[in-house]
Amino acid sequence: MPTEERAKKIKVKAVIARYYRALLVYPWLLIFAIVGAAGLEASNVIAPLYMRQFINLLAGSEPSQALMVTLFSTLGIFALVNFISWIFQRVRMSAISLLESRVMRDLSNQAFAYMLGHSHDFFISNFAGTLTRRVNRYARAFEQVFDSFILTFFPTALFAIGTIIVLSLQSALLGVGLLVWTAGFFVLQVFMTRWRQVYKVIRSAEDSKVTGILSDTIGNQLTITLFASKGQEQRFFGDAIERWMQANLKSWNADNLIYSIQGIFAIVSEVGLLAAGVYLWSKGALTVGDFVLIQVYVLGLMNRIWDIGHTMRRLSDSMSDASEMVHIFETPHEIIDARAAKPLVVTAGSIDFKDVSFGFNESRSILSNLDLSIAPGEKVALVGPSGAGKSTITKLLLRLYDATAGTIRVDGQDISLVTQESLRSNISFVPQEPVLFHRTLRENISYGKPDASLEEVIEAAKKAHCHEFINALPDKYETYVGERGVKLSGGERQRVAIARAILKNAPVLVLDEATSSLDSESEALIQDALLVLMQGKTVIVIAHRLSTIMHMDRIVVIENGQIAAEGTHDGLLSEENSLYAKLWNIQAGGFMSDD
Questions:
Q1: Dist. CA 87–CA 32, nearest whole Å
Q2: Extended strands (E) in 335-423
Q3: Would the pLDDT of 491 be above 60?
Q4: Burial (0-12, 13-18, 19+ Cβ within 10 Å), 592
Q5: Residue 28: its pLDDT value, please?
């Protein structure tokens, strides 16, 4: 979506609604924050009245003992009001600190949980860095939004009402003048902030793009090095930074224009109000104390309303930041549990694909009316050319995507009617390129069984033949593997992934070319581990290296999204000119005949 179009879709109401619901979880903290703010502003309005009385006493009387008593009494009351103000300030800030920290925690958890609920396709279609930034900004923006209301807008409104009432009692002219000035300044702030908002949203969007590109580039540093494309990436990143800089410059220029207009308005308004005060004083309508009171109120109110401009601009930034996450909240999860979904119960492990079709869009069909039944405990290999649909079959089984037609059943249970968590808990998946967390080896191996003991982890590692290299590391099973497991070789990562599957011990096992990253020695070591892992399980193996699946119970040849042939290795080879025979001859027979 173009940044200009996104600028028109600022989710202000949606952001406020979500933040408001999060606040209502802690009603007493919210009440204390509001009472603290109200009490503080009431004190701020009342205190100058005693200052006026104090100055009037000084200006209109000769020193005497009675006057001294009255002065110190007035001063004592002034001090008491300010002390009460201090108490309300402490109440407000303590409540705000507790409230904001808890709500920000809750918002982070909500954003994280909803983000993870999106489908596999959602994550491969978005930059990881951009998504990370959206989650972080959403929670952090709440602090600015709530501070804007509880520390600026609400207190300013109370102070403005109080001062206008007090000055109106002194002079209707001053009261009306202050009301007009306050309303005019506020309307000007709102108008200019809305005008500037579009530039802030564009800047925020460009900033997110820069973050996404930076994250993507860092994650592919090795590819950049191997392709000697540092200059190309610098130009790509430089173009993004240039767009961000231009958006930033436009936003700053808008700020400078706003400050200039506000400054002129403030000067003219302040001089006008003070001139009116001088006129009234000259007519005897105001005392010296009244004049000081006007000064205190006008300057205090001016500073607050001036601060409203800064706050509204910061608020618009926060709204823009939070809106990016709200867009994700308002994007429905692509794969959802049925309303009455029940946990999957696997007792045998049969798998049935019935008339299953799938395509990413109408013009790109992957599977077409696929029928495939796998008996409990059967070991089935899926082979075929790239793009035939082998991996899609396993992704549909795991509900990374939903079939566009047909049904998939496990032990007779339609997987679209069971919970996703229970479905995936009953399937161990070892991908072609396993990705590990930047956590310890123990945590990575026990990921499918978090409560596993160290002894269980070691036993699984031994079966996967990775105990030896782990034990040779200085920190052994407490060794951190680096982001995405980069500190380990491809073969080591694959063996850790297999150990993870062994420990999970799910009744259904899916291997997506699980030995492809292994060298010959590692592959030999792992074959017996896979045989142990497959015992008593229903197994689906995606294989390109046909030598690894010769002894499977059944081999299913997939071509153009349909089953082209199926049978044992020997049976398929006996069919002349079959696709399987061609694939075998390319990989093995061809090399043998050359000898």
A1: 12
A2: 351-361, 364-374, 379-383, 405-410, 413-414
A3: yes
A4: exposed
A5: 94
Cα separation of 566 and 587, whole Å? 19
As a whole number of angstroms, the distance between CA 362 and CA 133 comes to 34
Contact 145, 317 (CB under 8 A): no
Token representation of residue 189: 């702030």
Q: Nearest 5°: CA angle at 249, between 246 and 255?
A: 150
| pLDDT the model gives residue 595 | 35
Better-scored residue on pLDDT, 237 or 525: 237
Helix (H) or strand (E) holding 373: strand 364-374
- Average pLDDT of the segment spanning 524-551: 76
CA distances from 53 to 288, 456, 547 (A): 10, 81, 99
Quick one: DSSP state of residue 377? T
With a CB cutoff of 8 Å and minimum separation 6, the contacts of 504 are 428, 448, 449
In 3D space, the residue among 142, 133, 37 whose CA is nearest the CA of residue 90 turns out to be: 37
Q: Which residue has the tokens 């049935």?
A: 352
Query: 291: which 2 tokens?
Result: 């004049």
Residue 27's pLDDT band, with cuts at 50, 70 and 90, is very high
> Is it the case that residue 41 has pLDDT exceeding 80?
yes
What SS3 state is found at 106? helix
CA dihedral 355, 358, 362, 368 (to 10 degrees): -40
Instruction: Give the Å distances, CA to CA, from 438 to 330, 481, 482.
Output: 31, 6, 5
Reference 436, options 396, 386, 488, 395; nearest CA is: 488
Spell out the residues 6+ positions from residue 64 whose beta carbon is closer than 8 angstroms to its own.
Answer: none
Q: Within 10 A of 357 (CB to CB), how many other CB atoms are there?
A: 15
Q: Is the dihedral of CA 575, 578, 583, 587 positive or negative?
A: positive
Side-chain-facing half-sphere of 433: CA atoms under 13 Å: 2
- Pull the structure tokens for residue 488: 């380990």
Sign of CA dihedral 501, 507, 513, 519: positive
**Of the candidate ranges 344-348, 517-521, 551-555, the one whose mean pLDDT is the lowest:** 517-521
3-state secondary structure at position 371:
strand
In this prediction, residue 33 carries a pLDDT of 92
Q: Which residues of 18-32 are buried (b: 16+ CB within 10 A; e: fewer)?
A: bbeebbeebeebbeb
* Residue-level length of the chain: 595
Using the CB atoms, write b or e for 223-256: b if 16+ within 10 Å: ebeeeeeeeebeeeeeebbebbeebbebbeebbe
Give CA–CA dist 415/407, Å, rounded. 8
